[in-house]
Design brief:
The complex is a heterodimer of chains A (about 110) and B (about 170).
Chain A (H helix, E strand, L loop, with lengths): L1 H13 L5 H8 L3 H8 L6 H14 L6 H11 L2 H35 L1
Chain B lengths: L6 H12 L4 H8 L3 H13 L3 E4 L2 E4 L4 H8 L2 H19 L23 H27 L19 H10 L2
Antiparallel strand pairs in B: 1-2
Classes of the chains: A mainly alpha (about 110), B mainly alpha (about 170).
Amino acid sequence: MELQKIIMGQYMLLNNDPSLKAISLDTGIQLTRIFRLFNGSKMKLTEYQVFQQKVKVKMGLTDTLEAIAFDCSLKLSPAAIKEIEVFLKRKIEIWKVVQATNEKNKSASQMSA
Amino acid sequence: MQEGLLIIERIIVESLSKKERNLQEIINDTSLEHALLLNVLPNLLMKNIIRYTRGIYSIDKENCLQWLGEVNKVDHVKEEAKELFISLVNQYFTKSAERKTVLEPQLKIQKVWLTRDEEVILRSHMATLESFFTGVKASRRVKPQKEKTSEQRVVIWGFSQYSDLVDGVLKAV
């Protein structure tokens, strides 16, 4: 569910909060299904992939991170792969802390409202 | 995390290594926000780097031989240095309107061919800079200032031969 929220958030942000109808047209997913997804219904893998692809296209990521990572894992030296791994791990550790902080702040502001 | 300390962990450890503090004092000294600290401090407690007793956080001196050796491993320090350098580069190239800090970041890169004498002069300038920082640190010990860990200036300098840097890039694949 967390990944679903993230990808939908990214999609909305990159497309300037489009209407449900516009999302349905863009993704090819039925309008009623889009409505349910935005109301917390669990996404199917295929739906997630559609959103993910749309986000990547919007961000100009034709060379996806996954594709590049795979290419690197096949071609680069173990030391170079380790360097990338460490860099990415540190990024994600910081992200986790920031994410947890934002969640805490969000729930605190909801409690005080 | 087995890859040494993250920058947000390092600043807390540095803050507490000066003196033990309560949560509010850590906030004031590190400028990290309350909720973020509540996420990072438990990690440091779990790693036995810091202790918590009656509202006060302090460095875990009993276990410091273990964790100091670990966090100061060359590979870990290298990653932290990279993180600082990347952040400085990012900050420098961020448009000033988007930058949150008041202090304008400085970053200079020169590529210049030096004669032997000029290189001696450069090395002497760098030694002067080094001794300036050593002097500042020494004077703080004699005459402490109300300094915040977060308000320290991070200064990075160094040089290498262009071809060595290029070689380094070529070998790192």
